[in-house]
Design a protein that fits this description.
elongated, 129 residues, 19% helix, disordered N terminus, Jelly Rolls, alpha+beta, single chain, 40% strand, four-stranded antiparallel β-sheet, three-stranded antiparallel β-sheet, 9 strands
Length: 129
C-alpha cells in the first residue's frame, strides 16, 4: 500500500513581520529620525498543528539587545503545537542622522528574524527520514 506524501510546508510568521516590513529600508537618511513615544510589543502565540503534521525545523532563537531597543524571538516545537514568543521594545525618541545606519541595522535584524520560517511536514515523511 502506498500513499502520496507532499513536500514540506513552510509557515512564515507573517503576522508578526508586517509592521516592521518596510521600516528603514533605505540606506541613506537626510534628517534625524523621531519617534512619538516608546513602545513594547509582546506576542505569545501557540498554533495547534493539524493531525498528521509535525515540525521539521524551527528558526534559531533571536536576542538583539541594542540597549535602547531590543528584539527577542523564540519558537518552540511542542510536538502537536508550535509556541512562538516575540518581543520588540523601542525606548528611542531621537536618532541623529549620523546614527541612522545603526538604527537601520537593528531594524534589518528584526526583519530578518521575522522572515525565518517554521517548516512543517506530514508525519509519514518525518518518520521516513
Amino acid at each position: 500500500m502506498g500513499f502520496r506524501s507532499g513536500p514540506p510546508c513552510a509557515a512564515s510568521r507573517g503576522p508578526f513581520a508586517a509592521p516592521e516590513k518596510e521600516v528603514f529600508v533605505r540606506s541613506e537618511r537626510l534628517f534625524a529620525v523621531c519617534f512619538d513615544y516608546p513602545y513594547q510589543k509582546n506576542d505569545d502565540v501557540t498554533i495547534s498543528l493539524p493531525a498528521g503534521w509535525t515540525v521539521s525545523s524551527v528558526p534559531q532563537p533571536q536576542d538583539r539587545d541594542a540597549k535602547a531597543a531590543e528584539y527577542t524571538l523564540k519558537v518552540e516545537d511542542k510536538k502537536t503545537e508550535v509556541h512562538i514568543s516575540r518581543s520588540v521594545r523601542n525606548d528611542i525618541f531621537l536618532v541623529p542622522q549620523p546614527k541612522y545606519l545603526a538604527l537601520r541595522a537593528f531594524c534589518q535584524s528584526v526583519r530578518s528574524g521575522d522572515e525565518q520560517q517554521i517548516v512543517l511536514q506530514p508525519s509519514a515523511v518525518a518518520a521516513a527520514h
